[in-house]
Amino acid sequence: ANSNLVTSTINVTAVNDVPVLSAGGVLSYSENDPATVIDGLLSMSDVDDTNIEGATVTISNNYVNGEDILAFANTANITGSFNATTGVLTLTGSDTVANYQAALRSVTYQNLSSNPNTLSRTISWTTNDGDGNSNIATSTVNLGAINNAPIVNAGGVVNYIENASAIVIDNGITLSDADDTHVESATISITGN
Ligand SMILES: [Ca+2]
Ligand SMILES: [Ca+2]
Ligand SMILES: [Ca+2]
Ligand SMILES: [Ca+2]
Q: What is the bridge-based pairing of β-strands 137-144 and 68-71?
């Protein structure tokens, strides 16, 4: 015959697993390009949360304040804020893992300079599930510069009287070049008459 039945108890405590991010995309960005998606293949998962509470996107290497812009179009639940001093785009608001993944995939880079620093930028991504931060995943933006031609403005009129000595033609000429400090040559031609 069987004995009486006795019982013991096991209490199970859950421990948060932080979100897992995977990135690694490389964007080739040329001067004057519009705002461009950085990493459309970034992926994120969280085994024990349905919602993510926030994320940060950081230009963590070679950030240039005034040139580099990270941007995000706000959604119903997620709001982006870019801090130009630190180069950090912060996303806040609770939304699903899938929606946060889509949000991060939509983040854009833009460079506003005509004479950009062409060192590669490292973009670092991290998210928070309300209990902890994910790993930091990184992507890369490579920059290419395009020459801006010099710009000359003239338009002066000088009246020359027969037999006068040589006179300056136009002392109001201006010359500029957005991305060069030296000019290599110039030509001056009498093109009419
Ligand atoms: Ca867990
Ligand atoms: Ca979690
Ligand atoms: Ca240029
Ligand atoms: Ca130039």
A: unpaired
Give 8 Cα–ligand 4 centroid separation in angstroms: 81
How far, in Å, from the CA of 9 to the mean position of ligand 1?
A: 21
CB 100 within 8 A of CB 90: no
CA of 1 to the centre of ligand 2 (A): 49
Contact status, residue 55 vs residue 137, Cβ threshold 8 Å: no
Compute CA 32 distance to the chain's CA centroid, rounded to the nearest angstrom: 13
Query: Hey, which residues does 137 pair with through a beta bridge?
Result: 125
Q: What is the pLDDT of residues 19-73, one digit of tens each?
A: 999 999 999 999 999 999 999 999 999 999 999 999 999 999 999 999 999 999 9
- Which ligand gives the minimal distance to the CA of 14? 1
Predicted confidence at residue 3, as pLDDT, reads: 97
Q: Please check whether residue 52 is in contact with residue 95, taking contact to mean a CB–CB distance below 8 angstroms.
A: yes
Tell me the CATH number for domain 20-144.
Answer: 2.60.40
Task: Delimit the domains of the chain by residue range.
Answer: 20-144
Q: For residue 112, which ligand has an atom nearest its CA?
A: 3
Confidence of residue 165 (pLDDT cuts 50, 70, 90): very high
